[in-house]
Amino acid sequence: MDGWVGRIIRVDLSRGEFAVEDLDPYLAMDYIGGRGLGTKILYDEVDPQVDPLSPENKMVFMTGPLTGTGAPGGGRYMMVTKGPLAGTVNCCNSGGHFGPELKYAGYDGIIFEGKAPNPVYLWINNDDIEIRSAEHLWGKTTSETEDIIREEIGDKWQAMDTHINCIGPAGEKLVRLANIINGKNRALGRGGAGAVMGSKNLKAVVVRGTRAVTVADGEAFKEAVLAILEKVPPGGGPLADFGLLVVHAVVSMMGLIPTRNFQSGVFEGWGNIDGFALKEKFLVRNKACFSCPVAGGRVYRVDVEGFEGCGEVEAEAHVNFGPMCGIDNLAAILKANYICNDLGIDTISLGGSIACAMELYERGYLPEKDVGYQLNFGNVQAMVELVEKTGLRQDFGDVLAEGGYRMAEKYGHPELSMSVKRQEMPGYHVQGIQGTGLEFATSNRGADHMRACTYNSELLGIPEKLDPLVTEGKAAMCINLQNFLAAKDAAGLCLVTAATAQMTPEDVVSLLEPATGAGYTPEGVMLAGERIWNLERLFNLAAGITAKDDTLPKRMLEEPVLTGEAEGHVNRLGEMLPEYYQLRGWNEEGVPTQEKLEELGLA
Amino acid sequence: MARIKVDHDKCTGCRLCELACSLHHIENTFNPKRSRIKVFIEGELHYPVLAGPYTDAECTAKNMVVIAGHEYDECVLCRASCPAKPIFKEPDTEVPLKCDFCGDPPDPQCVKVCVPGALTFLPED
After folding, report:
1. A142, A311, A342, A456 - which has most CB atoms within 10 Å?
2. Which of A212, A213, A236 sits opposite B116 (nearest CB)?
3. Hey, what's the torsion of the CAs at A23, A27, A30, A35, to 10 degrees?
4. What is the fold, at CATH topology level, of the domain defined by A244-422?
C-alpha cells in the first residue's frame, strides 16, 4: 500500500504473544487512519461498558497515512482507548518522532490487549518484535526509563534513532490523570491514558525502523507540500516566537484567562508568566516535532534554587499551574510542568484539579488536616508539592489522583470542579467565547481544546472571524470544525501546523490523494470526519455518557464574568445545543438518527 | 564550489530535510535512513549533517570540542561515514551514501523545505 504501510501488530499481553495482521484497505479508506481507525477498532472489539482499567479494555496506537511522509505537521499518531477519567472513548494525539518511526519499522499501528502478569515493554526493530521484561524499569520516571532503555541498546547511533513511549510512576499507580510520554516531553495527553497502560503492566513501547513509507505520486505530493509550506509565515510566524501562548495573549487581553478556578478572567500577574516572560527568562530554543515547519515547542532551562529543571513546556501548563492556582512564579510553573512530564501526568487536568482543591480549601469545604498544609490560592510550595504527591499517590495526592471532579464530589461540592464529563477545562473562559463553550460541552472525551479549536475562529480569525460573544452560527461552525479536525487527526496531521498554514479540506486532499493513490475528495474527507465523530458518540452512548453530560460547569452557565470585554456574559449553551443536535442529525436526546447512521455507513 | 551553509542554532529538529532528500533520490519514497542529510538530536542541541565521504578506517583519536561553552562530540558533527559511525549507508546493502547537491546544476531539495532557515544554498561564486 502507499501512504499506509498495511500492517498492524496485535499484542496479547496476558499470554505474552503477538501477531502481525494486515490492515483492511477498505476500512483504512473509510476511516483514513489514526483517530478514525483506532476508534473503529476499539468500537468493534471493546464493550463500551468495560472498566477502563480492566484487562478487557484495549489500547490502539495508530498512525495516519500521512504520518512519516513529510507532509507539513505529518508526524502525529494517536492512542485510542476507553479513558478512566471521563469514562468516554479517549483518543490521545501526540507528535514527536515515535509515530513516523513506527511506520519506518513497517507498521501502521499496535493493538494491546489483556494484562501482562509482570511489568513488560514492547521492543520493535523492523521484524524483530519482543515482549521484554520491564521489572527493572518499574518505578522509574519517564526520563530515567528512556535513558536506561537507550543505554541498554549499547550502540550510540542506533540509540539516537530509537523512539520511546512510556509511562512514569503516575501511570503505574493508576492515577486517573496519567499520560503516556514520548521523547521525555511529548504527551499522549488527557483522560488518563497512562493509567490504562499501567493497568496492563506495560511500561514502554520502543521502536526503531529502517524501512520506507511510500507514496503513490511523489511529484504531486512534493508540489502539495511546497504549496502548503508557502502558506506558513516566514520562520514559522508568531507561534515560533511564543508557542501556543500566542492564543493566550489574546485570551488574556480579552479578560478571559481562567483565574483562581475560573472565579475571574483577569490575572494581575499574567505579565510575569506569559510568552514574553518565558522568552526573556528561561527559553533555550524552539523545538519542532517530526516534519513540522512551525516549531512551537518551547525548550526551557530553569536554575532558580528549588525549581531546577529543563524540558519543554506547553501553553496550557502556564494557565493551569499559573492563573488557575493564583501563581505568577514562572520558575514554579515550569517546575510543575517538569514534574508532570517526569512522573507522566496531564498538566491541564492536574492544574485544574489543584485549583479546584484550592477553592474548596478557601471556602472551608476541604479541611487543612486532610491536606496537611495550607492550600490557599497563590501558595507556590503547596502547588509544587501537590503535583509530585499526586503523581506518586502520596497523602492528599492520593485523593487528587482520582481527578478534580471525584475529589470535589467527595467533599460535597462537585459543582466547583471546572470540568466537563469529569475532565478539566483548558485555559479559556467560555463565558466570553461562546463557541468554545459548545466545543467543550460536546467534546467526545470531556472538556477539550483540541476537538474543534473554535477559539481560533472566534479569537484569531482562523479560518474566519466570528464574534466570540454571539451564539448565532456557532453550532454549524463547531460541527464543521469537529468533523474537519477528526479527519486531520485521522490523516496524521498536526492541528497546530494545519491552523498556522490555514489548511483547508482541499489542502488535506492535495496530500492524501497523491500519498495513498485513493480517490479522496474534500467532501469525502469531511464525511470521514463526521463518521469518526458519530462513531465516538455511539461508543459514549453505549458507555452511558449521554446528552445529560453535554453540559458545562454551573459557573460557566450562571455566573457572569465581572470584567473585560465579556463583562456580564455567561455561556449561553442552551441557545446552541438544540441547534447543534439538529444540525448533527441527532434527535433531542443527542442520539444519531437511523437516517444519519445510514448516510455515514454506520447503521 | 557551491556550498550549503548550516546554521545549527536555527535548526528546530523537524527533519523535513531528511524527507525531501529521500524523496528526491528514491522514487515515491520517504525513508530517513536512506537520506544523505541527517539531523542528530541530542537533548536541546540539533546537528544537521550532510553526508560526506565514506572511509573504511575510523579516526585513531576522537575529539571532544568546546565552542562557546558547549561541549560537542566531533564524531556527531563529522560528515564521514566510517566503521565507528555507520550512518549514511543503505540499510540493506550498506552501500555508502553521499550528498550530491541533487544533481548538476546543484539544486538541493533539503534547503527548499527548511522553513527555519538553518540550511542556505550558496551557489558557486
Report:
1. A142
2. A236
3. -60
4. 1.10.569
